[in-house]
From TrEMBL:
Entry superkingdom: Bacteria
Subcellular localization(s) per the UniProt record: Membrane
Protein name in UniProt: Bacterial sugar transferase domain-containing protein
Transmembrane segment boundaries: 7-29, 41-59, 71-95, 107-125, 256-280
GO cellular component terms, semicolon-separated: membrane
Originating species: Candidatus Jorgensenbacteria bacterium GW2011_GWA1_48_11
Length: 436
């Protein structure tokens, strides 16, 4: 879903939140008290609304997959409203004296009204998206193009529909392309980059501009739809043009945030860390911490720290399997709650890793992954405690799955920003608390 569509949904949600509050107060207190009651409730509920919107984001209510049909939408929305309502009750219970409000009945009525209005709003958006689909003409052919066109056909809520696919660009002339665009009323032309390497074809693409249609590189379009890199088709020149090795202001501020947050979180978690240390030592023999060499920025080796979750094992670099018998009973709990990662706050303080970035790999596995095209690009940036690949794809248990995760890592390296980092952190929070 495009940023404009997500912004539209967000604005609609905000308006419906306040309309639902006004309707709640109107029903409860009548028209003549509405103005005064709304003023009293405005600021406390504005804080609550911020929490609601965060929960909506974590519940993927701004993702096109949630908008694919009314049933999926209602289920996701109902769960999100329920969770938001529970959090609201807790907030008012803990801080009600500051708000001078304990709106139990109002909150219940508000949640019901909002659920109904927001569902109707989003259901209308689904119909609108399906009726106002952007027609695209695709020029070129490749397995990834086939995958993309199939996905668009199965997911009309993306807002795109392939109206024509010109698979043999070597036989294409300008008249054919213009005729195709006009007959199908295409509003966007997606071009395979290899097509424009030929000067004559580049001239065809240029002469499409006066038609008023949008022209987009297929590799960029693929990233927009799947939020990962089309590795099979990329060339070295693409990396030279699109991947920045340094972003001084971003890098400096990100390091400052890493230092402040890792130190603060470390202090907060110190009591829990001490308790976990005692439990680990008492439950099984072996060291408290698990130390392992990982590949960091620039391919440099560093030692990563975790709480030990396995029995001592000398079988070398193996992928962890489901129900792996090497994992201790306490280790299963630590992994389930991701508490084994706490010692990596020290790695963040040292500057070995950041909070966000591609996960650092073991040296032995990294050597296997070197066969992947452009694998070394992921080492341009500092590795992370969590990453874009981790929140979008399962833990790799094979070379094929590791390659798929590399697509997401390359996407992150190319598009890294504070907004993307925040998105990763929020989705990681969702994964930690709701994935199980």
């Amino acid at each position: 879903m495009s940023l404009a569509k997500k912004t539209g949904l967000l604005i609609g949600d905000i308006l419906i939140l306040y309309v639902s509050l006004a309707l709640t107060l109107l029903i409860r207190y009548g028209f003549f008290e509405l103005s005064d009651r709304f003023k009293t409730h405005f600021w406390p509920f504005s804080l609550i609304f911020a929490i609601w919107l965060l929960i909506f984001y974590l519940a993927e209510l701004y993702h096109h997959q949630t908008m694919r049909n009314a049933a999926v939408l209602f289920k996701a929305l109902a769960i999100a409203v329920f969770l938001a309502g529970v959090v609201s009750v807790i907030v008012f219970y803990l801080f009600g004296q500051f708000f001078e409000l304990t709106p139990k009945t109002n909150l219940l009525l508000f949640a019901f009204i909002f659920l109904v209005l927001n569902y109707l709003w989003r259901a209308a958006i689904i119909k609108f998206l399906k009726r106002n689909i952007l027609g695209i003409t695709v020029i070129g052919d490749s397995p990834l193009m086939t995958e993309t066109i199939k996905y668009l056909k199965e997911n009309p809520q993306t807002g795109y529909e392939t109206t024509e696919w010109l698979k043999e660009p070597e036989n294409i002339d300008l008249k054919t392309v213009i005729k195709t665009i006009r007959e199908n009323e295409s509003q966007l032309v997606v071009i395979q980059p290899h097509f424009t390497k030929n000067f004559a074809n580049l001239n065809i693409a240029y002469k499409l501009l006066p038609l008023g249609v949008g022209i987009v590189n297929f590799w960029d379009f693929y990233e927009t739809i799947f939020e990962k890199a089309p590795l099979e088709e990329l060339e070295e020149g693409w990396f030279v043009e699109n991947v920045a090795t340094r972003r001084p202001y971003y890098d400096a501020l990100k390091r400052l945030l890493d230092l402040v947050l890792s130190f603060t979180i470390g202090i907060i978690l110190l009591p829990l860390t001490m308790i976990l240390a005692i439990i680990i030592k008492a439950s099984s023999s072996g060291p408290l911490l698990y130390r392992q060499e990982r590949i960091g920025k620039g391919g440099k080796l560093f030692t990563i720290y975790k709480f030990r979750t396995m029995h001592n094992d000398n079988r070398g670099p193996l992928w962890t399997e489901e129900n792996d018998n090497r994992i201790t009973a306490v280790g299963k709990l630590l992994r389930f709650a991701h508490l084994d990662e706490i010692p990596q706050l020290w790695n963040i303080l040292k500057g070995d890793i950041s909070f966000t970035g591609p996960r650092p790999e073991r040296k032995e596995l990294a050597e296997q992954y070197q066969k992947f095209p452009y694998y070394e690009i992921r080492h341009i940036v500092k590795p992370g405690l969590t990453g874009w690949a981790q929140i979008n794809y399962k833990a790799s248990a094979s070379l094929e799955e590791a390659y798929e995760k590399l697509r997401y890592d390359i996407f992150y390296v190319k598009n890294r920003s504070f907004f993307l980092d925040l998105k990763i952190i929020l989705k990681t929070i969702k994964y930690v608390f709701f994935s199980h």
